[in-house]
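It is worth pausing here to work through a concrete case rather than discussing structure prediction in the abstract. The textbook approach is simple: state the sequence, then state the predicted structure, then interpret. We follow exactly that order.
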Amino acid sequence: MEYKAYTHLFNDVYSNVLQLSENPSQFAEYLTLQIRELIGTRTVIIAVKTETDIPKVLSVYPERRKDWANQSSILQLAELSFGFENIQYCEKEKCEGNIVSLLQNLEIEKAIVIPLITGDRVVGSILLLDIMDLFGKESVIDLLSQLSGVFALVIRNAHLYHDMENLVELRTLELKNQNTKLVKREEELQAANEEYEVLNEELNENINKSEEINRQLNEAQLRADKSELQARDILQTTMDGFWIVDNDGNFTEVNEVACKMLGYSKDEMLRMKVSDIEVIENAEKSKKTNSKITKNR
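Step two, the predicted structure:
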């Protein structure tokens, strides 16, 4: 009768576990709650074996004992359980070695440790700590042994799913940070582009102004060249003798009439000074004459 009752209860657990295998993140919470109710234990802990063989707590019931479940003695007990081949029933007064000292540290009298093995690989363990009701212990352990393989498969999936969730969360955070940097970079580029457009407009305005100034300078140069040509034409065609001198009295331009009047060629005149032909004047008078000429220009 006892065995049949436990068989019915565990068949119900087995059925729900299979359904939850498609939602492994919910499996650990369901399993810890059900086992705690069925076997009469104060705390149920599901631990998984990481790639570095260090145990990690996947689920705790009741949840208020989560911090307590992460203490070193619990993790050491889980690590020891990874070496078990079968379910172990542990009593502080009967066990030996490290398990006794760990139970003493935890102030626990009785515990059941269920290694979770799939194939030849240990994926974790279930720790039933501080057992209150030992009625039907053998039937419970036998049925747990039958279900442990199923538990191992689902726990493995739950662990993988949990790691995948963490990886997706981490990747999402990385992408979010990258997107934030890209948005910031885009804003910087937009600001730089706007600044470039302003500078480009100013440059175009300055180029236009420069072109206008060059145009005006060219026009002024053309007018000056034209005036100079006209002045030279007038100078060369007049009937009188004309010449142009600089501030030092040097001839800078003479017409043919002046050259004939003075008896010099144009090349000779352009190498001479006014004082060279005004021989009747002394140097001081020549300087004054040149000053008057300069003022009248």
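Step three, interpretation. The two ends are 142 Å apart (CA to CA). The chain has a mean pLDDT of 77.
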